[in-house]
Amino acid sequence: MKSASQIRQEFLDFFQEKGHTIVSSASLIPHNDPTLIFTNAGMNQFKDVFLGTGTRTYHRAADSQKCIRVSGKHNDLEEVGRDTYHHTFFEMLGNWSFGDYYKKEAIAWAWELLTGRWGLPKDKLYATVYQTDEEAESLWKQVTDILPDHIMRFGEKDNFWEMGDTGPCGPCSEIHIDLGPERCDKGHIPGHVCGVNAGCARYIELWNLVFIQYNRKGDGSLEELPAKHVDTGMGFERIVSVLQGQRSNYDIDLFRRIIQGIEEVTGQSYAKAEHQVAMRVIADHIRALTFAIADGALPSNDGRGYVLRRILRRAARFGRTLGMTEPFLYRVIPHLAEAMGAAYPELLQQQAHCELVNKAEEEGFNRTLDKGIELFESIAARLAAAGETTVAGEDAFKLYDTYGFPLDLTQLMAEERGLTVDLDGFDREMENQRNKARQSGKFTMAEDQTRWETLAEEAHSVFRGYEVLETPARLCL
Ligand code: ATP
Ligand code: MG
Ligand code: MG
Ligand code: MG
C-alpha cells in the first residue's frame, strides 16, 4: 500500500513533469489579506497574481497547501467528527496556471493522474460543470474517456467557486467518486437520494478544477480579470483514503499514527466504538491547533485566536469522554510531529512552543470545564424532567461567561442529548452584558473579553512563564 507521503510526492512529481514549479505551502495565517482568518485554499497565496497586482517567475505551479476551514464562507466545523471526510485542518493538493494553460489541459491532466497514474476506476468517476459552461462539458467528452452520462451540470452553489465574499472566482468543474451504496451515511434522512453533491458519504468530491476569470468586488459585482487562470484543489486525505482503500479519512496511515498517539496518551482503544468520534475529533483538532500555532497564531478571545480557543475547548471536552481529566492534548503533539514533521518541518521546529501553548490553554480551561459540565448536566436533567428540549439563552450564556464554554460547544453538547439552544436568548444576554459593561465604563476592550480579563488575573500567577508569548489580556484561561 502506498503511504500518504508517497501519494503527496507522486502528485507533485506528476505536475513537475508537466512543467510546474513546486512551491511550498503558504502560512495558515494569511499575510496582507484582511478578508481571511485562515488560509482556506491553495489559491490564497496566488490571489495577487490572479488580480494582476503581483507576478511570479513561473506560470505553472503545484503544491500541497495547509488549509483551515472553520470560519467565513468555508466553515466545516460542524461536519468534523460527524462525517469522515471533512476536517478543520486539511492539506489541499493543487496545480495552477497563471495565464498559461486553461480548461483543456487542466481536465486532461486531472483525468490522466487519477485514472492513468493512479488507476481509479473510470466508471466510478463523475465530472460536474457549471450550468452554462458548454466548453468544459465538451472538453470532458473530447479529452477524456469518462462515461458521457457521468458529466453533470450544477448551479452556483456547487460549481461556481469563490474563496470568500470578494476576490478571484470563476466556474469550476469537479471530480467526484462513487464509493458504493454501502457508504451512504444519510439513509436515515427521509427523502435522501444518493448522488453527486447530495451530501452523503457515498459520492465524495475529490478534486475541484476552478477556471478563474472574475474578481468579485465589494458591491457583489463581477469584474473580468486581465487574464484567465487555472486553480485546482484536491483534498489530500480524501484521495489518500480512496487510494489506500479505506472507509474513512481517519483510517489512512497518516491519521492512524496520530490516533495511535491518542491511544497511547489516553490509554483507551480506538477499536471501541464509543471512543471513535472523540478520538477522530481530537486527531482533527490537534492538527488544526498545532499547525496554526506553529505558524504563529495563539489562542485568545477574539478573531483568529478565539477560533483556536473554541477548537481546543471542544477537543478538551471530548478528552473528558475518554476519561482525561488532566491536560493531555499537548502530549499528542509529539505523535503528530512524528507523523507529519517530514513534510512540514515547522512542526518539529515549533514543537516545544506548540506544546507549551496548548498545555497552558488546557490547564486554564480545565479549571472550569468540570463545573461547566456539571452545570450542563443539571440543565439537561431539569429539561428532561420538564419534558422540554430547549436550553435557555441564559443558561448557555452562563456556560459561556462563567465557565468558558464557547457557544458551539454548548450547542454540540445539547445536540448529543437531542436538545437545541435558544440562540436569540443567548444573543440577548450577550447584548445585556455589553450594555452593562458600557454603562459601567469599566471595560474598554472588545466586549466578549470582559469576563476573561477578570479571570486572567488568576491565570497569570500560575502561567507566568507564558507572559512572554502573549499580551496579558489574552493569556487568560
Ligand atoms: P465539499 O463539498 O466536500 O465540502 P468543497 O466544495 O467545499 O468540498 P472546495 O472548496 O472545492 O471544497 O475545495 C477543494 C477540495 O478540497 C475539495 O474537492 C475536497 O476534496 C477538499 N476539501 C474541501 N473541504 C475539505 C475539508 N473540510 N476537509 C478535507 N478536505 C476538504
Ligand atoms: Mg465544503
Ligand atoms: Mg463541494
Ligand atoms: Mg468543491
From TrEMBL:
Give the note describing cofactor binding and stoichiometry. Answer: Binds 1 zinc ion per subunit.
Please list the reactions this protein catalyses.
Answer: tRNA(Ala) + L-alanine + ATP = L-alanyl-tRNA(Ala) + AMP + diphosphate
Q: Which UniProt keywords apply?
A: Aminoacyl-tRNA synthetase, ATP-binding, Coiled coil, Cytoplasm, Ligase, Metal-binding, Nucleotide-binding, Protein biosynthesis, RNA-binding, tRNA-binding, Zinc
Q: Which cofactor does it need?
A: Zn(2+)
Q: Which GO terms describe its molecular function?
A: alanine-tRNA ligase activity; aminoacyl-tRNA deacylase activity; ATP binding; catalytic activity, acting on a protein; transferase activity; tRNA binding; zinc ion binding
- Give me any GO biological process, just one: alanyl-tRNA aminoacylation
This protein's source sits in the domain of life called Bacteria
Localization, UniProt: Cytoplasm
Q: Where is the Alanyl-transfer RNA synthetases family profile domain?
A: 2-477
Q: What is its EC number?
A: 6.1.1.7
Predominant location:
cytoplasm
**Broad EC category:** ligase
Give the record's GO CC terms: cytoplasm
- Per the record, what about its domains? Consists of three domains; the N-terminal catalytic domain, the editing domain and the C-terminal C-Ala domain. The editing domain removes incorrectly charged amino acids, while the C-Ala domain, along with tRNA(Ala), serves as a bridge to cooperatively bring together the editing and aminoacylation centers thus stimulating deacylation of misacylated tRNAs.
Report the protein's function. Catalyzes the attachment of alanine to tRNA(Ala) in a two-step reaction: alanine is first activated by ATP to form Ala-AMP and then transferred to the acceptor end of tRNA(Ala). Also edits incorrectly charged Ser-tRNA(Ala) and Gly-tRNA(Ala) via its editing domain.
Indicate the family of this protein. Belongs to the class-II aminoacyl-tRNA synthetase family.
What protein name does the entry list?
Alanine--tRNA ligase
Can you name the source organism?
Answer: Hydrogenispora ethanolica
What portion of the full-length protein is represented by this chain? Answer: 1 to 477 of 872
